Amino acid sequence: MSDEELEELKKRRMLELQQQQGEQERQAQMQQELEAQKQAILRQILTPEARERLNRIKIVKPELAEAVELQLIQLAQAGRLGNVLTDDQLKTILRRLTDKQRDIKITRK
């Protein structure tokens, strides 16, 4: 390979890396915007105590918290949540979800 070919390859590779970095930045930006929208909706449909409980759950069980958040947002968008969800109502929802998840049985042979 000549020096010109090497330079051309370097330029192409640099352009590819810049495009990949730009795409990653766009994806991160979109993810942040979606998270901000989700938090805004949750602020409207949850009391501060319920939001705090959900945030604490997110630390311990992020999958459960994500599932609950999505369900609550879907219910709110469908108009099935009449008013703001209190902490006690959120506890009831969480109990129902966790009871379903705890039915795991392990048998040893």
Q: Please tally the helical runs, counting DSSP H or I stretches of 4 or more residues.
A: 4
Structural class: mainly alpha
What is the succession of H and E elements? HHHH
Portion in strands: under 5%
Multimerization status: single chain
Number of strands: 0
Biggest β-sheet, characterized?
none
Radius of gyration: 23 Å
Shape assignment: elongated
> What is the arithmetic mean of pLDDT?
89
Unreliably modeled segments: none
Distance between the termini: 64 Å
**Percentage of helical residues?**
over 70%
Describe the structure.
The relative contact order is 0.09. The termini are far apart. This protein is 81% helix and 0% strand. It has 4 helices and no strands. By secondary structure, it is mainly alpha-helical. The longest helix is centred in the N-terminal third of the chain and has 43 residues, at 3-45. It is elongated, with a radius of gyration of 23 Å. Helix 1 (3-45) crosses helix 3 (62-78), helix 2 runs antiparallel to helix 3 (62-78) and helix 2 (48-60) packs parallel to helix 4.
